[in-house]
Amino acid sequence: MTAEIAPEQPLAPDLMNNLNALAKHQQAIMDKYGEGLPYQRERIVHEARFYMAQSAEAMLEAGKRLIIIKENEPYGEFTKIVTEQLGLADRTARLIMQAAIKYTSPRLESQRQTFAGLGKAKLFELMTQDDEDLAELAEGGTIVGLTLDEVDRMSVRELKAALRQDEAALKRSQQLVTEKEKQLQQLSQQLAGKTSTAATSDEQAPLNTQQWVTLTLEGVGDRLKSERLRLGLSQEIFAERCGVKKLTQYNYEKSERHPDAGYLIAAKALGVDLNYVMTGERSDEASALDVVRDEEEANLLTAFRHIPSESRDIVQRTISALSEKKAARSRA
């Protein structure tokens, strides 16, 4: 008996499309992380093992290799390579890949060496933060009120506690926002009732919270800036503590935008006199503290607050000496 050999059937169009898409995806990964070389499992595994034994920056290089392996190996093979050939737990490998993706993003790539100096464990802790916030940290700003030097000096446990504390504070703030939103809505309805009585007999719908804030805070920019200066805070620090970007704070002070209830609650927690911001009438206790005169003085005070405690005595003595010298010249 002779066996009949069936003619070779062409691949289904859908399957061909999927294979082409997979090939393009794998090539894109190689173009991005493969440094122009073709995929070779042995070489990539060897390089990943080498980089994993190095510094935090090398760990990011290892993460790039892990991404390449994952995207080029069949389903299930990646885990076997990671556990059997690299001796890593699957979760650890995924953390390393996430770190590589995070710190080689367009916004953070130029700052990669800066972050690598913090060490592997701190890189993992900071991965939950926004790229913009991390970029500002590397460029001299702060994150959760900490400068890059302060993060560097902290232990991993201290950094973790600071980040968790900030998350807890955010949750508490959100709860307060919900409660205050209700109070603002009640005030909004009262204001709407007075407006409708004075202006016209036609029925008016109650103002929503944002409309009420916008109407009430006419000229809020100048008063908000005055309060920030009174507290001796720079725009950047004040904005961060109120949960917004520096640009947003700038727009608030220019009256180009109006703050929402959540921002106002956070500002009140800093010591802002909301009665003054909203009505222009200061409370007595706020007036007694109105000591900062301009932006320059606020920036100096903010800088002083970020000086380590052991260095403050030097700054105080220097300022006192300059003050006494000026006073002596005046007497002469």
UniProtKB/TrEMBL annotation:
Domain HTH cro/C1-type: from-to ranges = 224-277
Show the Gene3D superfamilies listed in the entry. lambda repressor-like DNA-binding domains
Question: Where do the coiled-coil regions begin and end?
Answer: 156-197
Annotated membrane-spanning segments are: none
The protein's matches in InterPro entries, at most eight in alphabetical order, are given as: Cro/C1-type_HTH, Lambda_DNA-bd_dom_sf
Is Phosphoprotein there in the keyword field?
no
* Keyword DNA damage recorded: no
Q: Which GO terms describe its molecular function?
A: DNA binding
Q: Which UniProt keywords apply?
A: Coiled coil
Please, one GO biological process term? regulation of transcription by RNA polymerase II
The molecule here is called HTH cro/C1-type domain-containing protein
